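Ticket closed. Logging final result for ABC transporter permease.
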Amino acid sequence: MTTRDLLAAEWTKAVTLRSTLACAALAPLLAAALGVLLGHEFGGHALRSGPAVDPLFPCLYGLTLAQIPLVALGVLLTGGENRSGTIGAALLATPRRGTLHTAKALAVTAMATPLAAATVAASFLAARAGLGRRAPAWTDPAVPAALAGAVLYLVLICLLGAAAGTLLAGTAAPLGVLLPLLLLGSQGLGNIPGLRAVTQYLPDQTAQPLLHLAGPQSVPNFHRDYGPWTGLGLTAAWTAAALLAARLALRRRDIG
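Final structure:
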């Protein structure tokens, strides 16, 4: 089978699984719901306290929750076959495991990109509706970079989940590692003195300056040792390293 044939097969599997479609639908819904709540809260109270609050914060904070279905989507697209045992049939049809891994990564990217764009748009538009006159405009200098960075981040985090699904050959283990990390781990550990110097480099933290979720960089408690786009580059480096490890693991794994 050619890479094109494999990509078509992986895409067909991705869009016909009920579990992946449920994750795909949940991401923009969560982003919109949290965007509405934060928009009204910040529009009604927080932003009135002073101009120092970044209005992009409530517009994109919903992504911290909406990223969870995208991570789960990546894990399910790769780890589900290992759990069910159907990965054996895929390898029988495609002895070149590297080619199969490439097709899976491309299929995940193809599905994650429009979904990430829809999720970011849902979060931004829902929060703007609540912020009212204090809402950032599409033409504000910081908005295009933040929205583009948010889309790229969500695609990368979905690919990170896909890499974990292949690397750990299942769904329970990678979800058990990634979900606590994204929901509690590095953010909670970052509040412990002495650990912030390390946790600022974890994959869910590095993109936060670009997404305006890290707080004012002039404040010592929020300062990062890298710039916004460098931070996104660090997220990409985490994802690339995970994909490489997953590729090597798939090539060496003995699947009966």
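Residues 3-252 form one domain. No further action required.
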